[in-house]
Design goal:
Elements (H helix, E strand, L loop, with lengths): L3 E6 L4 H13 L5 E6 L25 H5 L7 E4 L6 H5 L6 E4 L9 H6 L3 E3 L6 H16 L2 H11 L6 H5 L10 E5 L3 H12 L3 E5 L5 H6 L3 E2 L2 H7 L2 E4 L13 H6 L5 E4 L8 H9 L5 E4 L19 E3 L9 H19 L12
Helix pairs in contact: 1-13, 5-8
Length: 351
């Protein structure tokens, strides 16, 4: 097999750095020459991904700039760099695009298919990390830890007074019902963790065989049943067009006034205006969001005025393990490609 030219785009992210660290040893002795495109002024990850060309989104950098830098690449490895048709045309010998994300929304998969280019990704790269964060947020809401932190700053030692502590009464998880919307890599791991806390589990995931849901110790449910029965609702699905605003005013009205909503999936799943009203009017107890429609949110976002809403800045995959796991999945796929073996994580075209 002739030697391949592999280009890694360093977009300045931790995952890109993990790729740069892991790939040389994984590919040692293979017929491949590796080049790293250093983070430039417009390619570096200096803020949240904000690019959207209509075909690719959530990316760092300029497609036009990248197109002029990948000439001669046979294998292109990216994390959040944009891979549009223009970029692919800049590398006419490109045969494989490896994106170190669970959902490669920054790659125009349809354009790659039309050009005969295979796209692989790293499913489950942050599943363990996101499941951990989900449970952390669930516990945070159950035990009112946000209010505890606020009051400890306000009252100091005075918070140890019995009358003060009584206002911080929380919930036990054992016996409570968790509704899981979406039963993929993250949802299944959340279920395992929640079972260990003695929770009852309802799952709404229409594309998963109900037998698989039952085998995991959960009960399949319609979205309406899940929302009306759960003490905690946790979202773990993708915002396909039919799911944009999946949780809106009507769905929030179905929830118990004592219930809490957790979203560590995608901001587009929740109608933020409807959630703001539901929280402000105490229609539900509380919510915790790791993802928003616009990231970062504007300073005047009304969410910042709510005491029963806890926000984290998209930390689901921000652990030491997740970038390394992604890099190793990608390395394995490149090894398979170079050896002519079947690829395990090929992305279907997205048109």
């Amino acid at each position: 097999m002739r030697r391949m030219r592999l280009v890694i785009v360093d977009d300045g992210t931790l995952t890109a750095r993990a790729l740069i660290k892991e790939l040389p040893s994984a590919l040692a002795g293979r017929p491949v020459d590796m080049e790293i495109l250093p983070a430039g002024d417009r390619c570096a990850a200096t803020s949240a991904p904000s690019g959207d060309t209509g075909r690719v989104r959530e990316f760092y950098g300029s497609p036009a700039e990248l197109a002029g830098r990948v000439t001669g690449a046979n294998i292109l490895v990216v994390h959040k760099a944009p891979v549009t048709g223009e970029v692919m045309d800049g590398a006419p010998d490109l045969r494989l695009i490896a994106c170190a994300r669970a959902h490669p929304v920054n790659v125009d998969v349809a354009a790659a298919a039309k050009r005969g280019i295979t796209v692989v990704h790293a499913p489950g790269r942050a599943a363990e990390s996101t499941a951990d964060l989900t449970m952390a947020l669930l516990l945070h809401l159950a035990r009112q830890l946000g209010e505890v932190c606020h009051q400890i700053g306000r009252l100091g030692p005075g918070l140890w007074q019995y009358d003060c502590r009584s206002f911080l009464e929380g919930l036990e998880l054992a016996g409570k019902t968790l509704g899981i919307v979406g039963f993929g890599q993250v949802g299944r791991r959340v279920a395992v963790r929640a079972k260990a806390f003695g929770m009852h589990l309802l799952v709404h995931s229409p594309h998963v065989d109900p037998a698989q849901i039952r085998a995991a110790g959960c009960r399949p449910a319609s979205l309406e049943e899940l929302l009306s029965s759960a003490d905690f609702v946790s979202l773990h699905t993708r915002p396909w067009p039919e799911k944009i605003g999946l949780i809106g005013a009507a769905q929030l009205d179905m929830m118990k006034s004592s219930a809490c909503l957790i979203n560590t999936a995608r901001g587009e799943l929740v109608d933020e205006a409807a959630l703001y009203r539901a929280l402000k009017e105490k229609k539900i107890r509380a919510a915790a969001l790791d993802v928003l429609v616009q990231e970062p949110p504007p300073p005047e976002h009304p969410f910042f005025t709510l005491s029963n809403l806890f926000l984290t800045p998209h930390l689901g995959g921000k652990t030491e393990a997740a970038p390394v796991r992604a890099a190793r999945i990608i390395a394995g796929e490149i090894v398979n490609f170079l050896a002519g073996r079947p690829l395990e994580h090929v992305v279907a075209r997205n048109d």
